[in-house]
Write a structure and sequence with these properties.
This protein has 4 helices and 2 strands. The chain is mostly helical.
């Protein structure tokens, strides 16, 4: 029974994200720092539609836009979580009242907040690494 539940839990995301066909267009809403993508952005526009069938460079632009969007979400969520953990860890440490186990718990929470902050900063370095790997300036 446990194996069936585990298999179900592993396959559920595949069912949720299943699509009938591969999408061939996207809306790019930021300057990506890639000359081929940025010159397509109309002046004063908030976004521009990009169709892979019409332009082969569009797939690269859509991929970079998705990477930027994902890493921005990770960055902001991890920053908020790191601040909340740091405040909670500081509160736990300050209210330990000389109890070494509670003080140690507060220090551990603060350490995890610093690790979360490091992960958030690493998320900001992923798009330039992807651009470097793909050979895009």
């Amino acid at each position: 029974m446990k194996k069936i539940i585990i298999v179900f839990l592993l396959l559920t995301p595949l069912l949720v994200f299943a699509q009938e066909e591969i999408p061939n267009e996207c809306e790019i809403d930021r300057t990506l720092g890639v000359e081929e993508c940025d010159e397509k952005m109309p002046a004063g526009a908030d976004f521009y539609p990009c169709n892979v069938d019409d332009d082969p460079v569009c797939g690269l632009c859509c991929l970079l836009d998705a990477v930027y969007t994902l890493t921005n979400w990770i960055f902001f969520l991890m920053m908020a979580l790191a601040v909340i953990l740091a405040v909670f860890g500081g509160f736990t440490y300050m209210t330990a009242g000389g109890d070494p186990s509670k003080a140690g718990k507060g220090k551990t929470i603060i350490m995890f907040a610093i690790v979360g902050l490091a992960i958030a900063l690493v998320a900001r370095f992923i798009p330039p690494v992807v651009k470097f790997i793909m050979g895009v300036s």
